[in-house]
Fold this protein.
Amino acid sequence: EIERGDWSSDVCSSDLETLVVKPLPGKQLNAEEQRKFDMLFLEAVRQKEKEKYDAEFELLNAALQLNPDAPEALFEMAQLKLAFGSMVDTLSRVEGDSLLRRAIALAPQNIDLKETLANQLAREGKYKEAIKLYKEMIGKRPDVDRLTVLVGLQEESADFEGAIESITRLEQIEGKSERLKIGRASCRERV
């Protein structure tokens, strides 16, 4: 059984039979609706694994008709819209962004959702907002990978003082290294 905030879109096929998604406290589904939602959502995940994205889209739409506030379904739909919305398909990208933000609002403790949004924002060149999300995630659960991404975003946006601070945090977790020493020196030169 997966609690809200602990689920991941990277579910193995063997785990699908035991995956149960709980509705939000504000949206109570009866047993039949919950069973139908679970069935639709799990089948959507299966279709995603088979790379049958049209079927995944239709199944997610049906699941969201039953529970429009299910962060896991909103997240998967956002992923579809963001992945298949080309640069000229502004509407799909905007819808994907909106769905992802809604999923985060419904499950604010889910760091994976925030990281997905932060990465999307970085791809779009919205570094300030991506940096803010990474700092929030790191504040709750510091980790080397996220700090490394944060340093890269700060360097990309010319926030070299911020990058130096993040490198210092990396050193506190990883210990001192030649790589971090060089990164700090490079940032200092550009301040």
